[in-house]
Design goal:
- The structure is a single chain.
- The chain is α+β, with helices and mostly antiparallel strands and 395 residues long.
- Helix content is 43%, strand content 20%.
- The chain is built from twelve helices and 16 strands.
- The strands form four sheets. It has a seven-stranded antiparallel sheet with strand order 5-6-10-11-9-8-7, with helices on both faces. The chain has a four-stranded antiparallel sheet with strand order 1-2-3-4.
- Helix 3 runs antiparallel to helix 4, helix 9 (293-314) crosses helix 11 and helix 11 packs antiparallel against helix 12.
- It is globular.
């Protein structure tokens, strides 16, 4: 095991080490063995429980590490959840989930401030946060090395619940349950944006030009990759994306920034938003910038369409019925979002005009991601792009 660049003592014989594994920096929980050597801690070794003790003690800072704690609770008994692309998660006492950041993002990191703002505003549509641990990088910017949230029993993300509900809706010729779930999600997203309203400002001309430029750059990249659908319809896509340059003066908030069904967990019928790390395709400073609320809405709406495409790969589904269910879900989501945002007195945060443009940008980003990292995912944007461009709706 490489020598740590830095380490935070958690308890006797346990620590959180920041290491360079040769590919990237990682935050690794460690335990000292009987031979006196440090090894990677496994669930059951007590490192996650020790982190909860540290949060409960109210420690604020230790060297380059900073603790933001919102709890005095503790728990014991550890079991693994598993490892995703960025975190290794451990359930502690069926009370909390500790997420060790196994791939550190470049700082600054948006999550601590956004979680704090949402918590202060009383936003209930996320797992209750216990604390966030950050580490100051050699460049002087803080990045997250560990999160702790409430444990949500039987929680599944949208690539499971949405795909299952779409499949059932098409088979039963009844979109009601999928539309009801989309309605609940629209309500939660509206409450998210209302809770973030205290961060609202207005977009500058430079902001608008950056959004347009980024979208056009993504289109150019997709064309260079030789994607046939984008090459054939480049002019139509460019006209759509060009509208993003007209957003000067529109309201912006410190939004989620990477909102899609995979970021929405369903736990026993309750929907909650997770992962406030920002969009991974952006640079660290860009992830900190405010965004139009419609960008979050577009990401969620487009991912609901993607869930329908995924559903069709697992089960033979009637294409016309599938398209209708997908449309019904997105319509329900948008109607609930606008209705709830208006009821909360923040309708001014949402301008639907660039919704299709931001949806198109998301599909283009999916093409780039699939081409560079996950070729088996390409079938989703392959189907999504013409469906979006041929839709008769303004959104």
């Amino acid at each position: 095991m490489p020598e740590p660049l830095d380490a935070l003592p958690l308890a006797e014989g346990r620590r959180l080490a920041v290491v360079d594994d040769g590919a990237a920096l990682a935050a690794i929980p460690q335990v000292r063995g009987d031979d006196g050597r440090w090894r990677r801690a496994r669930p059951g070794d007590g490192a996650a429980s020790a982190l909860l003790e540290l949060l409960a003690a109210g420690l604020v800072a230790c060297g380059a590490f900073t603790v933001r704690s919102w709890t005095t609770r503790t728990a014991t008994g550890e079991r693994s959840v598993g490892v995703d692309q960025t975190n290794e998660s451990v359930i502690v006492g069926d009370a909390a989930v500790v997420k060790w950041a196994t791939h550190l993002q470049e700082g600054p990191h948006p999550a601590p401030r956004r979680i704090e703002v949402l918590r202060t505003a009383g936003f209930a549509g996320m797992p209750t946060p216990w604390g966030v641990l950050t580490w100051r990088t050699p460049a002087g910017a803080d990045t997250v090395v560990a999160y702790v949230d409430d444990y949500l029993p039987e929680a599944v993300d949208g690539w499971t619940w949405a795909v299952d509900l779409v499949t059932t809706a098409v088979r039963d010729d009844d979109p009601a349950e999928f539309s009801a779930a989309a309605t609940d999600v629209g309500t939660v997203v509206a409450e998210l944006h209302a809770a973030l309203s205290g961060t609202a400002t207005v977009a500058s001309a430079a902001d608008a030009q950056r959004w347009r430029g980024d979208a056009m750059d993504t289109l150019d990249t997709v064309v260079r990759l030789g994607h046939p659908g984008a090459v054939a319809r480049r002019t139509q896509i460019a006209v759509l994306l060009d509208d993003l340059g007209g957003l000067t003066g529109s309201p912006v908030v410190e939004g989620h920034g990477d909102l899609h069904v995979g970021q929405v967990l369903c736990s026993r019928g309750r929907f909650v938003v997770t992962d406030f790390d920002g969009n991974p395709v952006l640079t660290a400073p860009e992830r900190m910038l405010p965004i139009p609320a419609v960008l979050d809405v577009a990401g969620m709406a487009q991912s609901l369409a993607h869930a329908a495409i995924v559903a069709a790969t697992y089960t033979a589904l009637n294409p016309e019925a599938l398209a209708e269910v997908s449309r019904a879900g997105r319509t329900a989501f948008l109607a609930a979002y606008t209705r709830r945002l208006r009821a909360l007195g923040h309708a001014d945060l949402f301008d639907p005009t660039p919704l299709r443009a931001f949806r198109a940008q998301q599909v283009l980003r999916e093409i780039v991601y699939a081409a560079r990292h996950l070729p088996r995912w390409m079938y989703v944007p392959d189907a999504a792009l013409p469906a979006l461009l041929d839709e008769g709706t303004p959104w």
